[in-house]
Amino acid sequence: MMAQKRVTVYLLSGFLGSGKTTLLTKAIDHFTEAGRKPAVIMNEIGEVNLDGQLVANEVPMSELLGGCICCSSRGDLATALHELVTGEQPDLIFIESTGIANPMEIIDEVTDASLIIPVELKAVITVVDAPQLLELNRTSRGKTYRLMKEQIRCANLLLLNKTDLLTGTALEEVDALVREWNPYATNHFTVFSQIDMRLVEMLEEEGREAIHLLDEQGSHDHEADSRTSHEEHEHEHDHAHEHGSHHHHSHSHVMAYTHFFERAVDSNAFEEFVSKLPQEVYRAKGILSFSDTSSRFLFQYAYREMDFVKITPKGEVPDVAVFIGENFSRNAVRDALLKLESMFDSDTKS
Ligand SMILES: Nc1nc2c(ncn2[C@@H]2O[C@H](COP(=O)(O)OP(=O)(O)OP(=O)(O)O)[C@@H](O)[C@H]2O)c(=O)[nH]1
């Protein structure tokens, strides 16, 4: 069966007060004007949603208040996603996490949800409070600093925000620091989170192999999606530095690839594929039908261990697997899975 249309999910990450809500309101305006329907999941540590006041009333919004998504009971976020998708049929959903959230936990929860709800996490956008990061880097390097590092590391797109408060050399310093932590994302200096929203649109297109959106304008330099070797990255990285470019685009820093199976695959062949996953893929999960078993299985993979549990999903759930990692080739994983699917051309069980 063809996979049903998925609602794009973007995770907005960044420390307290970095400029996430400022970005969110701009993104909502942009997508609404472009004729698309955005929805929002707001997570606040406090009991009231103040940021929500800044979002236009007609934008469907789900509020998770009184705690951080990453520590609250698992399932709240999935419930919110489910309600928005079924009740509002949005085209895209922005999740604004609290500034203290560990993004990996949220990525994990959204990708878990994507196994049973038609959503797909397309990218993590992290807003960095550039002056604060610089300050912490020079002084304490404590817990906040480490959290900011986590938020930066898992981003596909990085906004180095509040640059109006920094001088030229400080900008270079913060840019170098962030690049060291995450050479694969694109960095953009921003004031009041002002960026070209086509960069956000491009993240959505990426999964569909349409990565040349901005290339048509001739203004940006993209690496091909299939470039995966470390050397090439290093080269590109150095190259970008030589030219002092702040537009280092890399599309291999994929934090999630979602594969929808069109047919059942052989269980042994699948196991072998999983055992050979590159080590950059550190997490995977899925719901699968195998050509050689009668039951469906929930598949889990973490720290190079895999696990299969028989399940009977409730409702219509497609065969799907999500791969999470840093800097792995989405194409390589996809091609290997397509090959598994075509192993038994006569077997069309789904
Ligand atoms: N000077 C300066 N202030 C900014 C910039 N971007 C945002 N701000 C201000 O910083 C404050 C926090 O911005 P928000 O967008 O609410 O930040 P947030 O990340 O959503 O904050 P939390 O929801 O508390 O995590 C607001 O007063 C913004 O007006 C910037 O580029 N420069």
UniProtKB/TrEMBL annotation:
<dbReference type="InterPro" id="IPR011629">
    <property type="entry name" value="CobW-like_C"/>
</dbReference>
<comment type="similarity">
    <text>Belongs to the SIMIBI class G3E GTPase family. ZNG1 subfamily.</text>
</comment>
<feature type="region of interest" description="Disordered">
    <location>
        <begin position="215"/>
        <end position="249"/>
    </location>
</feature>
<dbReference type="Pfam" id="PF07683">
    <property type="entry name" value="CobW_C"/>
</dbReference>
<dbReference type="InterPro" id="IPR003495">
    <property type="entry name" value="CobW/HypB/UreG_nucleotide-bd"/>
</dbReference>
<keyword id="KW-0378">Hydrolase</keyword>
<keyword id="KW-0143">Chaperone</keyword>
<feature type="compositionally biased region" description="Basic and acidic residues">
    <location>
        <begin position="215"/>
        <end position="243"/>
    </location>
</feature>
<protein>
    <submittedName>
        <fullName>GTP-binding protein</fullName>
    </submittedName>
</protein>
<dbReference type="Pfam" id="PF02492">
    <property type="entry name" value="cobW"/>
</dbReference>
<dbReference type="InterPro" id="IPR051316">
    <property type="entry name" value="Zinc-reg_GTPase_activator"/>
</dbReference>
<dbReference type="InterPro" id="IPR036627">
    <property type="entry name" value="CobW-likC_sf"/>
</dbReference>
<dbReference type="InterPro" id="IPR027417">
    <property type="entry name" value="P-loop_NTPase"/>
</dbReference>
<feature type="domain" description="CobW C-terminal">
    <location>
        <begin position="254"/>
        <end position="341"/>
    </location>
</feature>
<dbReference type="GO" id="GO:0016787">
    <property type="term" value="F:hydrolase activity"/>
</dbReference>
<keyword id="KW-0547">Nucleotide-binding</keyword>
<dbReference type="GO" id="GO:0000166">
    <property type="term" value="F:nucleotide binding"/>
</dbReference>
